[in-house]
Design a protein that fits this description.
alpha/beta, 2-enoyl-CoA Hydratase, Chain A, domain 1, Lyase 2-enoyl-coa Hydratase, Chain  A, domain 2, four-stranded mixed beta sheet, 11 helices, binds coenzyme A
Length: 260
């Protein structure tokens, strides 16, 4: 499949999805959202892919938001469709069932910040800048920002950033828990791949079950979440990986997981 605005490659069980419109700071136009939906469907169905790394082309931007040139003509009907389409694609990413690491290599504004929020792990370069500047355009975040940012960094902080449109530096993003780690730009992709490789070296059924449990935590109350956790925990005890992991520990050797 040929993509107009994405680069997609799979190597050693890691899929790379690169938003590729650097001349527009990788802004998400309709075509790009559509292609993201297609590529993540392909990734979901490809058993060979275990982890995904999402980043932006060039050194300046991860994604500088929805494409403002396409926003201008929206009305209440098309605006709802626009928002729901982006939300669906980002929920597809969050519910992929495989870990998605955002390697945020520059501006992550508006839809770019929302794309990062839909990923499971966020790594950033020192020049990354986050923000939900939609109020500057007279609109609000529409790809999940009001919900995911509030859940991740707390409603008070999310309200501040969404209502002022202020940008958040990588350093501040690290301090408030918006990103997991910050690296030199040249180190960002190697570190993201290193993390992906580490995850791949673990028992893959355990990785999938753990991800499912963690992702469900934002939608469930504690008791419901604990029930999900014990069900998934029980499932992992029926795997060969579990037998191998515990046996290897007792035999003081590295486990050889087979994802079974
Ligand atoms: N939509 C469409 N085009 C965008 C864009 C967006 N969200 N963000 C950047 N671009 C385009 C610019 O229009 C410019 O195109 P041009 O060269 O054809 O004029 C190109 O990308 C480079 O951007 P520029 O503004 O010249 O870079 P800068 O370094 O001066 O500023 C930003 C960088 C990110 C601060 C600035 O581009 C910006 O504020 N972008 C919009 C961010 C935003 O509001 N996002 C939320 C949208 S809902």
């Amino acid at each position: 499949m040929e993509y107009q605005n994405l680069i997609f490659k799979v190597e050693n069980k890691i899929a790379a999805v690169i938003i590729n419109r650097p001349e527009k700071l990788n802004a998400l136009n309709n075509k790009t959202i559509e292609e993201l939906g297609i590529v993540f469907k392909i990734i979901k169905d490809d058993d060979d892919v275990k982890v995904v790394v999402v980043t932006g082309a060039g050194e300046k931007a991860f994604v500088a938001g929805a494409d403002i040139s396409e926003l201008n003509s929206l009305n209440a009907i098309t605006g709802k469709r626009f928002s729901e389409k982006g939300q669906d694609v980002f929920s597809q990413i969050e519910n992929l069932g495989k870990p998605v690491i955002a390697a945020i290599n520059g501006f992550a504004l508006g839809g770019g910040c929302e794309l990062a929020l839909a990923c499971h792990i966020r790594l950033a370069s020192g020049n990354a800048m986050f923000g939900q500047p939609e109020v500057n355009l007279g609109i609000i975040p529409g790809y999940g920002g009001t919900q995911r940012l509030a859940r991740l960094i707390n409603p008070g902080r999310a309200a501040e950033y969404i209502l002022t449109g202020d940008m958040i530096s990588a350093e501040e993003a690290l301090r408030i828990g918006l990103v997991n780690k910050v690296f030199e730009q040249s180190e960002l992709i190697p570190k993201a791949y290193k993390m992906a490789e580490k995850i791949i070296s673990k028992g893959q059924i355990a990785v999938q079950m753990a991800l499912k449990a963690v992702v469900s935590s934002s939608e469930l109350n504690l008791n419901e979440g604990l029930k999900i956790e014990s069900g998934l925990f029980a499932l992992t005890t029926s795997t060969k990986d579990f037998k191998e992991g515990t046996k290897a520990f007792l035999e003081k050797r590295k486990p050889e997981f087979k994802g079974e």
